[in-house]
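Researcher: Let's do a round of design. I'm pasting the structure tokens now; please hold your answer until I've finished.
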């Protein structure tokens, strides 16, 4: 199946600066486990914490901006300083095939090509108003697992 969607990789939640530790306490109280933590620099400028709610492949990603230039900080600013829903990420088997097929289908990409993401993944983002015939209404991330995680 092209573009080869497998499952929801994660749902991303924006966390206002200084709020990550309190959010982590809440999720830990709910039984979520931290499975990955990383500072993602470059254009993203975020502290990322990936949480596992159970035994399935789906994760919750908390994103705290590290600078005023972070896209996550800009989202928080648009939301009146509140955090909340940032994007949904879908896992694919072949990121390059997905990118080319989605371009062919008329989706508007925010990235010129698939690029390195956190956890050793390869990613690209799709614009919320991606197609003229029906806007998605939310930011979409496409994710291919790190090579050692495939299999």
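Researcher: That's everything. Go ahead.
Model: Designed sequence:
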């Amino acid at each position: 199946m092209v573009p080869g969607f497998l499952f929801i990789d994660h749902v991303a939640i924006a966390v206002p600066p200084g709020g990550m530790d309190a959010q982590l306490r809440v999720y830990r109280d709910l039984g979520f486990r931290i499975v990955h933590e990383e500072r993602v620099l470059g254009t993203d400028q975020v502290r990322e914490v990936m949480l596992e709610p159970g035994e399935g492949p789906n994760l919750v990603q908390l994103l705290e901006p590290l600078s005023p230039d972070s896209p996550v900080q800009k989202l928080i600013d648009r939301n009146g300083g509140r955090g909340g829903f940032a994007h949904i990420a879908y896992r694919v088997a072949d990121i390059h095939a997905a990118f080319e097929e989605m371009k062919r289908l008329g989706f508007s990409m925010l990235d010129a090509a698939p690029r390195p993401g956190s956890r050793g993944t390869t990613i690209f983002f799709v614009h919320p108003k991606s197609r003229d015939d029906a806007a998605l209404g939310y930011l979409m991330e496409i994710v291919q697992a790190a090579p050692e995680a495939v299999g």
